[in-house]
Amino acid sequence: MANFELLQPLLHDSGGKIVLLVMDGLGGLPLTPDGLTELEAAHTPNMDRLAKEGSSGLSIPVARGIAPGSGPAHLALFGYDPIQYQIGRGVLEATGIGITVEEGDVAIRGNFCTVDADGKITDRRAGRIPTEEGAKRVELLKQISIPGIEITVEAVQDYRFAVLLRGQGLNGAIADTDPQMTGVPTLPARALKAEAEYTAGLVNQWLAEAAKVLKGHEPANMVTLRGFAMEPGLPKYKDVYKLKAACVAVYPMYKGVARLVGMDIIPTDSHDHPGDEFRRVGDVWKDYDFVFTHIKYTDSRGEDGNFDAKVKVIEEVDAALPELLKLNPDVLIITGDHSTPAKLKSHSWHPVPTLLWAPQTHMPDRAQRFGERDCMGGALGQFPASELMQLALAHANRLAKFGA
Amino acid sequence: MANFELLQPLLHDSGGKIVLLVMDGLGGLPLTPDGLTELEAAHTPNMDRLAKEGSSGLSIPVARGIAPGSGPAHLALFGYDPIQYQIGRGVLEATGIGITVEEGDVAIRGNFCTVDADGKITDRRAGRIPTEEGAKRVELLKQISIPGIEITVEAVQDYRFAVLLRGQGLNGAIADTDPQMTGVPTLPARALKAEAEYTAGLVNQWLAEAAKVLKGHEPANMVTLRGFAMEPGLPKYKDVYKLKAACVAVYPMYKGVARLVGMDIIPTDSHDHPGDEFRRVGDVWKDYDFVFTHIKYTDSRGEDGNFDAKVKVIEEVDAALPELLKLNPDVLIITGDHSTPAKLKSHSWHPVPTLLWAPQTHMPDRAQRFGERDCMGGALGQFPASELMQLALAHANRLAKFGA
Lengths: 404, 404
Prior knowledge:
Strand order of the largest sheet of chain A: 9-8-10-1-11-12-2-13
Oligomer: homodimer
Radius of gyration of chain A: 22 Å
Largest interface: A-B, 36 and 30 residues
CATH class of the largest domain in chain A: Alpha Beta
Distance between the termini of chain A: 24 Å
Largest sheet of chain A: 8 strands, mixed
Helix content of chain A: 25-40%
Number of strands of chain A: 13
Number of domains of chain A: 2
Structural class of chain A: alpha/beta
């Protein structure tokens, strides 16, 4: 990870500006033994030029052989050791929809579900009700109050919502109430350690009230709660890197992680294309030292197993790239948080193609284009993703010499 | 090293099967400035095809610049930090010949030597007596008993034997009794810390008895003891990786390390060729998730300084490889534990050529054949040998995603 302590006395504000462009799940695999990966197959004249001019390499998100979730993978890119700093799902979900999670709060992911007259689950996702239907029922949940705590409930998407508990003495060590099967009742909240007994009791009061207010609102007539978690207390960008940082992302979870490291979240529209996102980067460019911008659909199409569609997303990003280039960033990094090969339809552990373009300082290598095999022999080598931020700071001329 | 704690919740039994083929001392050096290494010079059509299809790289056994012994080098390949986990030679020798070393035992390597009438060493290896002669004298040593402890003595090879002490309060912190020169008497056992005084006293009683029973049995009329060591308490494969693992090796020491990490030792014959070993892998293949198979003679010929003979051993392994390939392993790793360049006639620190072939998941690279220089630009990069097992597990589909 970035060595925050080492960096601290070396940091200075040169005014150098950094763009970190993350294509989620960028890394891929060929479908046939002599085929190309998604990135290699994509027509990417802009990225190819940058790769030819700058430095390429492969980043290892968490550790060799470990396929990471997007949370730890992004923390690594942001310079945090993803094993040391773990963020609970509840916190990711809540922060991602704009709920501010403070020290001592407990954040929880909620799902609407369907239960029968005996309280047994018949559908764990309440027939995947659309977001509007979920939002209506969230209004009912908002009416619930439990003495001694402040409760925030917000719709996320479809049948999903987030809950935040604020008050004295709360603890997030509580097991999921989703039994992960149908035909049985939802589980009560159970404390995983003694300090969480009080919180579990409050949650069970809330669950009892939720059952009452949702009665008759089939198919979403009950809830399950998962991913109980507390604010992780991550060091912030302005402190560890002396960077004023912003995030331009469409999906809630990525905004969530960015917020936890102290980035300002720039409003986006859920229908934003890469070009729209990059224009938003431009809109706020003068106000920030560092902008993280995130493209979700490389990962989504990889998860779908749709090689060609993932190629198209990459090509769309490449076509929109001039929007970023015209900002003349001192450092432009293009990478992924992990690999999501269409061949595997899932996140994988394969090292992630990374391109660092910093015209004043980058070391050219023999890469002729941006792709896995060109990255293998590149100037950056294979390196831990969590060391990328140190490189970014150096290339932005933001780090003084260490020692005399 | 493999992060056992991180892996634990991620491990699942997919049924994916792994072969780890280790050619001892595989890495080499060219004899002339523009020459080839042993592996590059060898005609290896099978390995070349696998390298072309799969991923190549170079592994660093212990740390850059460190030439390891076979013990630490194998521990690293097995995923253990060879600096954190150190196995004494006595334990390696004893376990390698099938003596079970338990917690609290002290294991020791013994050499027969020749002493003159004054007790001064005239030959530290007793004229390199053959194994049968050593075995006869071991029978004499077996007659010795010392009150309070159980003593096992077994012949190893030539002038070498192993001793195991079992009893209460034993400690292995004892210096070698071999003075490493002739013309002086053997040394008494000396405790290196107070806790080992009692054990040193017992060993000296035993040494006095050994001198008596061996008197007149020239050239092997005395012994030296080396490598005093206790069972190292290594975590076991079935626990840390959830793998049912087996070892097919000819030389005792490699069986010894494999046994210490919990592998079952498959019986072999000391005259086994690579093809024989690989057939033994096939014989037990259905019963195991992971088979480690070890080829000794690449190292031996390297140590001899015999470049051509090392090339021949590699070619023999390549020719036998179809025996392994017909098992259709999900993951086949071909590597060495360290380099033993014939040019240097010794173990060296040079990174070791490594080939990972896992047809469902490997990342092809630009390697056209299996050899040091092709490995340099490969998909695996340069990596710590102790991280290889994480890659093996990932490619065998035995690791779930880390975090959400």
